[in-house]
Amino acid sequence: MDDVFKALADPVRRQLLDSLHQRNGQTLGELCEGHDMSRQAVTKHLGILEDANLVATRKDGREKLHFLNPLPIFEIADRWIEKFEHGRLRALDDLKKNLEGKPDGK
């Protein structure tokens, strides 16, 4: 999970994942579009995403296609976000505001 957090910490890598979310199965050239960096730099970012299992690749002839793997993100949501249920957090926030003397949480 540390590799996933590391991969998601960089805005360029998040943009690459967003691009794959919009259209899965892109080549390196397609993923480089819109980024002001070399193909080598994008390749390095994709390697980090692959190491974190956020991106999977498949050879198609001479091209290498990149695909989003959402499972590690789901696992983060399940492990770190879902356990902090919205309803419970809202109740705690309301209680805190009431204890501070702010009726109705305002």
Note down, in words, how this protein is organized.
With 106 residues, this protein is mainly alpha-helical. 58% of the residues lie in helices and 11% in strands. The chain has helices spanning 2-8, 11-22, 28-32, 39-51, 71-81, 86-99, and strands at 55-60, 63-68. Strands 1-2 form a two-stranded antiparallel ribbon. A hairpin with a 2-residue loop joins strand 1 and strand 2. Helix 1 (2-8) packs antiparallel against helix 4. The radius of gyration is 20 Å and the shape is elongated. The mean pLDDT is 89.
Kindly report the average pLDDT value. Answer: 89
List low-pLDDT spans.
Answer: none
Helix content: 55-70%
| Major beta sheet, strand line-up | 1-2
Q: Beta-strand percentage?
A: 5-15%
Distance between the termini: 38 Å
**Overall number of strands:** 2
Most strands sheet: 2 strands, antiparallel
Name the shape in a single word: elongated
Radius of gyration: 20 Å
Structural class: mainly alpha
